[in-house]
Amino acid sequence: MTGNHKDTGITRRRALVVTGGTVAAGGLAAAGYQSAFADTTTDSDTTTDGEATADATSASSACLTLMSSVTEGPYYLDGALVRKDITEGKSGVPLTLRLTVVDATDGCTPVPGAAVEIWHCDAWGYYSGYTTANPGGSAPAESEDGSTADDNTYLRGYQIANANGVVKFETIFPGWYTPRTCHIHVKVHTGGEKEDGTYEGGKVNYTGQLFFDDGIAEEIFTLEPYSKHSGSYTTLDNDMVYDGGGASSGLLTLKAVHKKDPSKGYKGFLSLAIDPDAENTGAGSGGGDGGGTPPSDAPTGTPPSDAPTGTPPSDAPTGTPPSDAPSASASS
Question: I need a labelling partner for 210 at 20 to 30 A (CA). Which of 69, 142, 240, 252 fits?
């Protein structure tokens, strides 16, 4: 992980067969989605009617088009932990993500056992493993956030899909960095297994990003601690990755926990329509964001040559990369 990134996925691949869905192939009526994608996990969380409706909406929209893969970007780290709560004490507006993996080649049936991996920046635009990479604009140094989060693992994790293809994450609303809009990176793996606290083997079927409504994001960025990061925020229309395709391009359905108080948090819903037979790691593929995989010899906390940093102001805070730091011409 971190500075010692290596492609362990290739050497440890296991040719395990993906378990088929339990819902009959073919088109599902809107009412059918509510039962097909109901959460049957054994934890204390319960599924409300609103959650079922949101799942139905995102599922029916996403399944019209196979999700398009993009690059994994320069901030990917191998070996993330299997866990529901990935915050590690990082402060920010609470965000519960409920994602449903479905097979777009088989009538949008669930894909139980799929491993969904996510990673994203903190409220000030910093990624774990790259905490000195300047997010652009003006932000405090990552070390000033006061949390006890592990600088190599925060806001990264896996969850394994239940019988209905559903995973749930507890995290925070991401911040932003130049020149990207607010987003979360995501990969869907199949055919592997949980081992030593992480997920090993199998293959990556989908590499993408999740996006947020501009109005909601901009409202949240006026709140603490987000407001300590000033500068120009990139909207969806101007983002180099989001292509305007709505749910099939990763746009989340968001529901406020408390409509009059955004600081109470949001719930995000989306169905990820994949091809379980396809493979797309997103590593080094260029794509629309020019991202890539960190070099194998990169030291911990050092951004790779194509990492997004923006152009730091002359009075940039502690944590600004040296004068030879990468520009904002390539990002993810």
Answer: 142
C-alpha dist (Å) from residue 2 to 6, 93, 296, 300, 323 = 9, 26, 9, 5, 22
Q: For 91-145, how does the pLDDT look when each residue is reduced to its tens digit (9 = 90+)?
A: 999 999 999 999 999 999 999 999 999 999 999 999 999 999 999 999 999 999 9
Nearest to 27 by CA among 92, 102, 91, 86: 102
Residues 6 or more apart whose CB falls under 8 angstroms from that of 35 comprise none
Instruction: Give the pTM.
Output: 0.73
pLDDT beyond 80 at 330: no
**Distance (Å, rounded) from C-alpha 218 to C-alpha 302?**
29
pLDDT band for position 147 (cuts 50, 70, 90): very high
Residue 36 clears pLDDT 50, i.e. is over it: no
| C-alpha span between 236 and 266 (Å, rounded) | 19
How far is it, in rounded angstroms, from Cα 109 to Cα 182? 30
| Contacts (Cβ under 8 Å, ≥6 apart) of 74 | 291, 292, 293, 294, 303, 304, 306, 307, 308, 330, 331, 332
Sorted by sequence, the CB contacts under 8 Å of residue 136 that are 6+ apart come out as 125, 177, 178, 179, 231, 308, 309, 310, 311, 312, 328
Residue 17 is encoded by which pair of tokens? 């067969």
User: What does the DSSP assignment read for 146-207?
Assistant: -----TTTTTEEEEE--TTSEEEEEEE-----TTPPSEEEEEEEEEEEEETTEEEEEEEEEE
Contacts of residue 138, defined as CB under 8 A and 6 or more positions apart, other chains included, come to: 229, 230, 231, 313, 315, 316, 317
